[in-house]
Automatic annotation (TrEMBL):
Membrane topology: Multi-pass membrane protein
InterPro entries named in the record: GT87
Biased composition (Low complexity): 421-433, 458-474
Protein name: Glycosyltransferase 87 family protein
Keywords annotated in UniProt: Cell membrane, Membrane, Transferase, Transmembrane, Transmembrane helix
Compositional bias (Pro residues): 434-457
Organism the protein comes from: Saccharothrix lopnurensis
């Protein structure tokens, strides 16, 4: 006679589990389909075909160097378009991310890489929607899939997929520390991201200037721990990288190249120079201080998430090299603004969101006949200069005008509100009946100090010979 049935066998899977499986199945299928579209479109295009997966070639070569016991920084890939392309990142990045790709044929590796990139961007959209107050699972799932398709159209995403870049994973790691309920582990994502590619260190500075000491300490410890693991698995390469190679930004390419959308690149084009003048560094320092002051200001107005966005823009502006694909960091801001415009029924905010989306979708400098990689610094007229630097110009305007908007938008919250406060009501876990936009939302209960609320809410390489152009990678 058979024994009693296992009571767990008759218990259906929790609704939350089913919803998560459905959500991430939809995101994965959408990501794979979009990766196939990208591969088909860009490999068949004469302009992009020769550029397709140019950076991933370097990454796979770095992974193979790790397996062969060869120094990472002796490996250089010769591109028919860009000339010599060295490996630019810490050794652990190659070990963790690129060694697995060496076990696949390169075509398959590219498809897997871009699919994983788009899944990461889907997660970025999902988290950003939650920060913006979209908490209904079904609505959030649909908006995540739709948002992923729209994010796929952005220029930073397109360039990211064309070259096979890594920044989407870094955005996800950092954003995990700004989501709801990051709690006691907040800072780990920032620290790990900074150890994989140093640019996210700007967020450690942000945590320090906003007085988020516990999260800053966690981020520093996570950074040091990750670097230590790198020394354990690749001591020689780690010593070479952290011992000085990390400061050689010139290895990433020509500062005046038009796809470089940093403030330094814009100045290089304006002054027709590829050599940093001393006063350029002063300008970059002033912009850095201004940007971090804006980040601190909006944080104390009540929005840690907008402080994160201001830190993002500051880092992209002051970095010597901010290629177009680096600007994938603006995806959370665009998602938040779109949701905010809908919640507030604000035509003005919707117009700003559309305008920013256009800036980050169109490659305007092509329309005015500006080259991507000129043989020497360019002589451009004022309109061409503006078209060549749309991203840094937009970022500067956001940093200059953002505090004025925050003061108006968050006027009901005292300027000294701490990290746990929010500027207006959080969307409740059980959605209330729709309210008129004219009715003020009730104030939210501040989150515990150990888990600061993240935001103010509701509201194939060709073999055709080509004359090498300046190195571009990273």
């Amino acid at each position: 006679m058979s024994g009693p049935a296992d009571p767990r066998a008759a218990v259906p899977a929790p609704a939350g589990t089913r919803a998560r499986v459905l959500t991430w199945s939809a995101v994965t299928v959408t990501a794979f389909a979009l990766a196939l579209v990208a591969q088909a479109v860009y490999t068949s295009d004469p302009h992009w075909g020769i550029r397709y997966m140019a950076d991933l070639w370097v990454y796979v070569a770095s992974g193979q160097a790790v397996r062969d016991g060869v120094s990472l920084y002796d490996v250089v890939i010769m591109s028919p378009l860009y000339g010599p392309m060295p490996y630019l990142y810490p050794p652990l990045t190659a070990v963790v991310l690129f060694v697995p790709l060496t076990f696949l044929p390169f075509g398959a590796a590219g498809l897997v890489w871009n699919t994983a990139t788009l899944i990461a961007l889907g997660a970025v959209v999902w988290i950003s929607l939650g920060i913006a107050g979209v908490l209904r699972t079904r609505t959030r799932t649909v908006l995540t899939v739709v948002g992923l398709v729209l994010v796929f159209c952005l220029l930073p995403t397109r360039i990211h997929l064309i070259f096979g870049q890594i920044n989407a994973f870094l955005v996800l790691l950092v954003l995990l520390d700004f989501r709801r309920g990051a709690g006691r582990w907040r800072g780990i994502g920032i620290g790990v991201a900074a150890a994989l590619k140093v640019t996210p260190m700007i967020f450690i500075v942000y945590l320090l200037i906003t007085g988020q000491w516990r999260a800053a300490r966690t981020a520093v410890l996570a950074f040091l721990g990750t670097v230590a693991i790198g020394f354990a698995v690749a001591p020689r390469d780690s010593l070479e990288y952290w011992g000085g190679l990390v400061f050689e930004s010139s290895r990433a390419g020509a500062v005046y190249a038009t796809p470089n959308q940093s403030l330094a690149s814009a100045m290089a084009r304006v002054f027709r120079s590829e050599v940093f003048a001393t006063w350029w560094l002063v300008v970059l320092a002033v912009v850095g201080v201004l940007g971090l002051a804006v980040a601190r200001h909006v944080h104390h107005r009540g929005s840690d998430f907008l402080g994160f966005c201001a830190a993002v823009l500051t880092g992209l502006l002051v970095s010597p090299v901010s290629w177009e694909h680096h600007w994938v960091y603006v995806v959370p801001l665009l998602v938040w603004l779109a949701v905010r415009a809908h919640q507030r029924r604000s035509a003005g905010l919707a117009a700003v969101t559309v305008l920013l989306s256009a800036v980050f979708t169109l490659r305007v400098f092509w329309w005015v006949g500006v080259q991507e990689f000129p043989p020497e610094p360019m002589d451009l007229n004022p309109w061409q200069q503006l078209a060549s630097s749309m991203m840094p110009v937009a970022a500067l305007l956001l940093l200059l005008l953002g505090p004025l908007w925050a003061r108006h938008e968050f006027r009901s919250r005292p300027a000294g509100a701490g990290a746990g406060a929010v500027a207006q009501a959080q969307a409740p876990t059980r959605a209330p009946a729709p309210a008129s936009p004219a009715v003020p939302a009730p104030a939210a209960t501040p989150a515990p100090a150990s888990a600061p609320d993240p935001a103010a809410t509701p509201p194939a390489t060709s073999t055709t010979p080509v004359v090498p152009e300046p190195t571009r990678s990273g």
